Amino acid sequence: MSKKIIIPVILFLVVVVCSGLAEEKKPVFNVISIEGTITSPSAKYIASQIDAAGKEGAEGLIILLDTPGGMDTAMRDIAKSILNAPLPVIVYVYPSGARAASAGVIITTAAHIAAMAPGTNIGAAHPVAIGIGGQGMDKTMAKKVENDAAAYVRSIAKTRGRSEEWVEKAVRKSESITAEEALKLKVIDYVAADIDKLLAAIDQKEITVAGKKKKISTKGAVLNNKKMGTRQGILAAISDPNISYILLLVGLAGLYFELSTPGAILPGVIGGISLLLAFFGLSTLPVNYTGILLIIFGVILFIAEIKVMSHGMLTVGGVISLIMGSVLLFDTPEPALRVSFQVLIPAVLLASGFFIVVIWMAIKAQLRKHYSGTESMINERGEAATDINLTGKVFYKGEYWNARSDKLIGKGAAVTILKVEGINLFVEETDKNAQS
Predict the structure, then answer these.
(1) Would you list the domain boundaries of the chain?
(2) I want to staple 67 with a disulfide (CB 3.0 to 4.6 A). Which of 9, 15, 104, 414 is the partner?
(3) Neighbouring C-beta atoms of residue 434, cutoff 10 Å
(4) What confidence tens digit (pLDDT) does each residue in 162-193 have?
(5) Neighbours of 128 (CB within 10 A)
C-alpha cells in the first residue's frame, strides 16, 4: 500500500478515535451536603469544595442544603464564595422536609441556580435570627442592622435576577414560603423532586459565571458525591452549640476530679483535651462570656465545698451558678445557635450529680478515721508498763512507748492516748466505766 493511501487512513482513524473520546466525555457535578447550623467551619468547607471543583474541571457544584440558620459572618463568607466562584454553584434545598431558613435564604439567593424539592420551605431571614442582631440592642442599632441586611440580600437577588421584593420581606418581616410559592414569586429557579430531574431541567441553561456567559451541560452527567473529611467533620461537630457545651462540662468535670483526687491523671487528661476542643467550638459561636464565667464560678464553689464545711450552701450556689451559666452561655435569640433544653437539662443534672458525689466522697474520706500513722493512735487504748508520774512507759500494740501524763497513773492501768509527739505519747487513765 502506498504512502499516499496509508497517511490519509491513519489521519482518519485518529480523527475517529478523538471524536469518540470527545463524545464519551461526560460532565461531572460534585455534590456536597450542608446540614444543620451554618458556622465558620461550614463556610470554610464550602469555599474549599468550590476551589476543589474548579481545579478538578467539574461542570458545577451542587450544594444540598438543609439549615435552620446560623451565624451572619459565616453566611456572608459562603455568599462571597458562591458569588465569586469560577464554576456554576447550584443550591438545592433537599430532601423533602428540609428548609433554607434564616442564613439559608441568603445562601440560596446567592447561587447561580437555586432549586427546592417539594415539601421544603424558605424564609425567616430577619437579621436577629441570623446572628447579626443581639440581645440588648437599642432600636436605632437594630434598625441599622436590619437595613444593612435588607440592602445586602437585595443586591444579591438583583445580581441573580431574583425577587428583590420578597427577599426584603424575608429580612424585614421574617416571611417564609413553600417551594411552589418560591418558584411562583421568582425566588428560586426550579422545583425538582430529585437531583436527576433537576439536572434534566437545567440542561443548556445559560448563566453568568465570573462575568462570562456559560451554558450548563448536564446530558449524561456524572455525580461525584463528596463527603466531608474526618477533620472537617470533627470541626463541624465541635462547632455545634450542644457539642461545645457538653465538651465544656466534661472538661471542667475532668479537671475538677483531678484537683479533688490528685494523681488520677486520666480524668485530668480527658478534661484538658475536652476543654481545648470546647474553646475551639465556642470561638466559632456567639458566646456570652458571662455564661462561661458563671459555669466556672459554679465549679469553684463545688471545690470550695470540699475545703469549707458550709453544710451544702456552697453546693447549692454551685448548682444555681451552673444552671444560670448554661442558660446564658450563647448570646443569641436564634434557636440553632443555643443549647437545646433537651441537652441542657440532662447535662446540668448529670454534672451537678457528679460534682455532688465527688464532694460527698471527698468529705467522707476526710472524716474517716485514720488507719495508719500517728493519727490512727489518737483515742486508742494501751496499758501502763510502769508507774507514770509525769513520765513513764506505755505498752501499745506490742511496743513500748515513752508516756507522759499530768496525773499519777499506776502500773497496769488502762490508758487512752490523747496526743502523739515523736515517740512520746500523752495519755490519761481510762475511765473504768467507759472501759467496761
Answers:
(1) 24-229, 240-367, 374-435
(2) 104
(3) 9
(4) 999 999 999 999 899 999 999 999 999 999 99
(5) 19
